[in-house]
Design brief:
This protein is α+β, with helices and mostly antiparallel strands. It contains five helices and five strands. It has a five-stranded antiparallel beta sheet. The model is unreliable at 100-109 (pLDDT under 50).
């Protein structure tokens, strides 16, 4: 009788110089890895969040960065982005599992990092001792078709965010047309930006 081996963990490491093209190179590489491992359903979120972390490293550090992709627990993807700065953005000092929803978005982190709060199933950080400087920011995504992710909670405590994200996840789970999934993703990103980000940056 034939037996089926459980999925084996895998990892990839991409080292990037401090270059404005680094986020694009990271996206192309990540897309190829996820496609080859049949994880295209989480590709859009993974590409956006990885791009934001690599961009953050490029803008706020003076050295190179690296991206490590690791799939564990079946199809749960973890992305680590290391850079040379020891400064950890506020939202990465705790994970989603330890976080409690707040009525407003944390003003401490950059606007792009808000999408990690919005779309990741968990996130966190790790700093190093004197033998290895810098930090790692990481996030995790669960494959919606194979592993149930924790219930998504809006970082802004917004019911509209929850409804829009629910519609996007439903479109992905039902494997609707790519343009429908893209429209659902654009809708939540536009709502989050216009409702929760831009008002805080109004300098008038």
């Amino acid at each position: 009788m034939a037996t089926v081996s459980p999925p084996q963990p895998w990892s990839y490491l991409l080292e990037l110089p401090r270059d404005a093209r680094a986020p694009g190179i990271a996206r192309v590489t990540l897309q190829a890895v996820l496609d080859s491992h049949a994880l295209s359903e989480i590709a859009e979120r993974a590409l956006l969040l990885t791009s934001e972390l690599v961009t953050n490293a490029h803008l706020h550090t003076e050295g190179p960065c690296s991206v490590r992709l690791h799939c564990r627990e079946g199809d749960r993807l973890r992305v680590n982005v290391w850079d040379t700065s020891p400064v950890v953005p506020g939202m990465f000092r705790r994970s989603r599992a330890r976080a409690t929803p707040e009525p407003a978005v944390h003003a401490e982190a950059g606007r792009g990092l808000r999408f990690v709060e919005l779309w990741a199933d968990d996130w966190g950080s790790h700093t190093y001792d004197r033998r290895r400087f810098g930090k790692t920011l990481w996030f995790e995504l669960a494959h919606p078709g194979k592993k149930t992710a924790p219930r998504w909670v809006s970082p802004a405590g917004c019911a509209d965010c929850v409804d829009l994200e629910g519609a996007r996840r439903k479109a992905v789970a039902e494997k609707r047309a790519p343009d429908e999934i893209q429209d659902a993703s654009i809708a939540i990103r536009s709502h989050f930006r216009d409702t929760h980000l831009l008002p805080q940056w109004d300098v008038r």
